[in-house]
Design goal:
about 210 residues; mainly alpha; 9 helices; about 0% strand
């Protein structure tokens, strides 16, 4: 558990660094248009990739420890399946770290986020069977999920500051041209639940890059 908490502290510091990252100044008008060269898009994507890489390590640390405890307590029903899924997860995490192009970064981030969102919804499902609820309580899964949510909200706090700085630099004509972004932000800002807010956040990237 000591390593896990050290990794959590590292992730917190990484997320807090986002708050200290201003939207870079540039004279290029292309940097203020809704395309993949937009400065807010570039900054946010790079920071979100780094956030996901660190978050992935934390999740892997937790999963590895949980698997060992499940096996030790004879609660691991299908070890081969769990091993395969864990291996797939590690490969996805490695691909995320190696991603260079915008397309690859977006694809790998989406994969990791889909898995986290799916898992979170499964944990929070009020209609889960009794065995699932028992395991969730026994292995403190909800507590871990709450820690992840705190990291997400810290990241979103930094994003909001970067967004406000970006918008403040636009003139009225540019704001009109980027009303899709402004409308998206209204919906994103109003959402308070972490899973739904994250699903909304992922839509941010398609405003600038839609392949």
């Amino acid at each position: 558990m000591k390593v896990y908490f050290i990794n959590c502290l590292i992730l917190i510091l990484t997320v807090q660094n986002y708050l200290a990252s201003p939207v870079p100044d540039t004279d290029s008008t292309d940097k203020e248009q809704l395309n993949e060269h937009n400065k807010l898009f570039e900054l946010t994507l790079d920071k979100f990739v780094a956030f996901n890489a660190d978050l992935g390590e934390i999740c892997d640390e937790y999963r590895s420890k949980a698997f060992k405890e499940l096996e030790k307590n004879n609660d691991l029903k299908d070890k081969e399946l769990m091993d395969r899924e864990h291996e797939k997860y590690l490969k996805s995490l490695e691909k995320l770290k190696e991603a260079k192009t915008t397309e690859d970064k977006l694809m790998e981030v989406a994969k990791l986020q889909r898995e986290i969102i799916y898992s979170a919804k499964h944990v929070e499902d009020p209609n889960a069977d009794e065995e699932t609820k028992r395991l969730i309580e026994k292995y403190h899964v909800t507590d871990f999920l709450e820690k992840l949510y705190a990291f997400y909200f810290e990241f979103y706090k930094g994003f909001e500051e970067a967004y406000e700085e970006y918008i403040s630099e636009l003139n009225e004509t540019q704001k009109e041209e980027q009303k899709e972004l402004l409308k998206w932000h209204e919906d994103f800002h109003e959402e308070k639940k972490c899973v739904e807010k994250t699903e909304k956040f992922l839509q941010f990237f398609s405003i600038f890059y839609d392949e």
